[in-house]
Amino acid sequence: MTTIKTANLILRNWQEADAPALYRICRDEALRKSGVTYIESIQSAGEAIRSRAKDTRFKAVIHRESGELIGFISLGDMNRYKGYAELEYAIAADYRNRGYATEAVKCMVDYGFSKLGLAVIAAWVRSHNAESLRVLEKCAFVFEGRLRKHARDQSDTLCYSILCEEWEDKQKEPQ
After folding, report:
1. Looking at the record's lineage, which domain of life comes first (predicted)?
2. Cα(22)–Cα(131) distance, rounded to whole angstroms?
3. Which of 71, 73, 98, 140 could form a disulfide with 89 if both were Cys (CB 3.0 to 4.6 A apart)?
4. Total number of domains in the chain
5. Per-residue pLDDT of the chain in tens (175 residues, 90 and over written 9)
6. Which whole-number Å values give the CA distances from 23 to 16, 67, 69, 75, 94, in the listed order?
7. Contacts of 174 (CB under 8 A, 6+ apart)
8. Which domain does 150 fall in, by range?
9. What CATH number did the domain enclosing 140 receive?
């Protein structure tokens, strides 16, 4: 199991006990409007967890101080080609706008490039999700384009990505 610690977070593999918190997080209307899959019950949350429990690309986001599950993050293999992954993340409403999404994304990008050997990490965001767009921009993702009326709710989808060589250049910059 790969566990990653940051200043405020722990990114770890899923555990069965996470099901009730995952269910609560996924019931959030704002997340659902942003494309997060609706989980219908604690039981279906448990099924989702069991299907991803050993996949090191799917992480539960834990608040270090409280020990509470506050979100999730993943680098999904979308069958494009070896080295390409798509980033997905969500933070519970009570923990938003505190920098946790940015911290988790930076950590997962580092993990993807340094440990998984990825070449590209892409993220698709609905155009009305201003908070998520800010997170990606803070994490050095580059805007690639707009897919008009692409999402199921007919909103536009914006595509962002970061290349491994861009990430490597950022690592060389003074902190």
Report:
1. Bacteria
2. 20
3. 73
4. 1
5. 589 999 999 999 988 898 888 888 887 777 666 666 667 788 888 888 888 777 878 999 999 999 999 999 999 877 778 899 999 999 998 999 999 999 999 999 999 999 999 999 999 998 888 899 999 999 999 999 999 988 777 889 999 999 999 999 888 888 6
6. 12, 17, 11, 20, 15
7. none
8. 4-172
9. 3.40.630.30
